[in-house]
Amino acid sequence: MSQTDQDLMNLPKKKFKIMNLIWVILIIVGLFVSINVTDTHISVLFENFSQFTDIFVQMAHPDWSYSSTVFPLLFQTLKMAVLGTVIGSIVAFIYTLLIARNIVKNKVLTGILRIIMNIIRTIPDLLLGAIFVAVIGIGPVAGIFALAVFTFGVVVKLFYEAIETIDPGPIEALTAVGANKLQIIWFAVLPQIMTYFISYVLYAFEINVRSSTILGYIGAGGIGLYLQETLQTFDYAKTGTIIIVIIVVVVIIDYISSKSREALMK
Amino acid sequence: MANSEKPMIELKNVTKIYDNGTVGLKDINLTINKGEFVMVVGLSGAGKSTLLRSINRLHDISKGDIEIDGESITKAKGKNLRLLRRSIGMIFQSFNLVKRSSVLRNVLTGRVAYYPTWKTTLNLFSKEDNQKAYEALQQVDLADKVYARADELSGGQQQRVAIARVLMQNPKIILADEPTASLDPQTSLKVMNDLKMLNEKYGMTVLANMHSVDLARQFGKRVIGIRQGQVVYDGQMKDTPEAVFTDIYNGGDGSEEK
Questions:
Q1: d(Cα B164, Cα A129) in Å, to the nearest integer?
Q2: Disulfide: which of A14, A173, B87, B247 matches B96 by Cβ 3.0-4.6 Å?
Q3: Which residue has the higher pLDDT, A201 or A53?
Q4: In B, which residues are within 8 Å of A192 by CB distance?
């Protein structure tokens, strides 16, 4: 009773933090400095604008007779994506079990394996392609390896975080039952993580389909090679065909894949 | 009293200090005989869970020794440790079922330590064990749920699946860590009756942590009171006056010299 009668205090003003203002000013200053240093101006974007429309008009009239050449290559590209995803995922699966701290208790081992993973993850896919073209030679095999390594990076990162958030209860229960390490993984861990794993593999596959179309540009096999050729011979009608076909296929695969992932997580 | 009784669990000067310096158990000496139904009571954080988890070595102890049926689990390694654990079943407050697996598979996991790894990996449980699992489910009235996914079951049903799993494991000892803490009163009663069945019908030694004094009084034959990692009371349930419980839960005095 007396609580409600009594004068209640006004909401106190939030303390003004001078550091926040300093950060904002620093960021704005940084932006202007970087514009000056790199000599970046918005006008650059419009310099060749007339050319842009020109080429765009040409691409918008694709050469459909060319599509018979495009499709076999597209299949090769997809094969690269599938193989790269499968190889990378299998390696990632085993590797991840070794870096999840709720499965392997040895912090030195998990630490070292994590550093290796993080180094691999930082390499962009095109650079990976270039490395494998240099090592293995021009052709789709280089692309497959590049995609496998790239898949490894994506899947391991997502997957180990999923493993570390699983319910520890079943692990405890299986330990109490007298199960060994492999049995614990098989009965307590895998049932909890398999859907995540499949979902991440599909996600990696989506990215790989996209990346694989461009890998040919640097000689790592697939449709990208023809993309480069037609562009260099200014054959924009053919380029247009390639781009449209790629977009349609990527959209379809993305759609199927993301729908499957949704269904899995239910 | 001490005629046919032989020690099933023996704790000798057991001390557990956690890595952060918290003392979990302080110099505990306890003997629990075959076939006993023991209630461990005490406030949250008193060390009840630590005590139970030390017995099957889900927690390692810092000092002392624990013997299971005459064999030291403290010193056991690898295969020996797993065989000792196989003889100790455990019931958890949060059931600890694999939620995405079927009820049958959950019950069968109680049996994995009886198989070599490759057989379990290929899911080669014997016909008899599948049948046994089904019979275990009948014992806890869940035969109709045999192929349901574990997460489709209610809390009480899940706990009874866990009991069927223990039945499958066929241990000498059952450690029940707050088996009814997340259940409603009626389901709690059912679960406690199942534990009683394991104790009377199969002669398993039961050691249960309880919060509910009523259930403890109703089902336990012996009471062990724990406070701040020490045993502050140990006696037969029928000789234990109500005041002892009040004491243990209120952190009262006098019970220090039991």
A1: 55
A2: A173
A3: A201
A4: 98-100
